[in-house]
Queue: 3 jobs
Job 1
Amino acid sequence: MRSKKNDDNGSDETGRSGITELQVEEFNANGALLLRQLLPAKWVERIRAGVASSMARPSQYAQHLYQGVEKGAYYHDYFNWRTIPEIADLFHWEPIVEVAGRLMGCKSW
């Protein structure tokens, strides 16, 4: 997914997301798209820390599905992303905003 021109922030020198029209079509057809290596390792670690923080201090909206199961367990917490800086920052990081905008057909972002 990432081009050879990518810097440490995950975007190429032009600031473009690198999403192809074929990927947009696949996303529209399937409702999901696998984008390998979209996030630099430092972002993956930040998100892991944010999820651990969320699980340690869940909000009133948190749900643990299949609690006690190692594989296939599911956890979510509505709206908690706004209070966890490691996760909130991701939603304001320009390359992610560009990717989401491109996949959803936004005119600007």
Job 2
Amino acid sequence: MQSPPSTSDAIDRAIAHVVRDWTERYELTAAESFILSASAHGWARRDIVAARQVSHKTIKVQVSSLLLKVSEDLLSDAVVRVLHEAIEVAAKTNP
């Protein structure tokens, strides 16, 4: 018998699902999707800069574009929305 997925695995899959949905719904670029996913996983902006190997200014421009598309003023607000949706997805798929 297979053991149930851990909570973090279920949430990780749910976050990925929500980010894919948002990418289609809001026509996010790959960079914007990466920033959203990484932020939802708790990455600091400096870690995103290092992972993307771009400047802080580039990330700032990409975050601004992302926020405009999803109608939020702060990245943290967009992340909260993603996490709320991810919890709902995880609850439906892992009752």
Job 3
Amino acid sequence: MTFRIQRFVKGDVVTLMLSGDIASDGAPELQAILDTDTGRELVFDLRDAAVVDRAGVRLLARAEVRGATLTNCRSLWRDVDELPGLRTRVDRTGR
């Protein structure tokens, strides 16, 4: 499935709607966004993410450590204890 990023800006909040497979081939594009959108609140909406590979999980973990919010995460990979940097609790509201 093709990886796609839709970017929405509302004030100081940048919401990135990610869809498709979040894999190593999309990592450079996501990393560039992390590097350029400093000083803004970043929200990653993963509602339409189909698959997240190891590189994608690492990138999302780095984003979260840097203050990004992950929303609409599937508990399938979101609640895995051995992924450092990711909170191991799944908030039932999707955040």
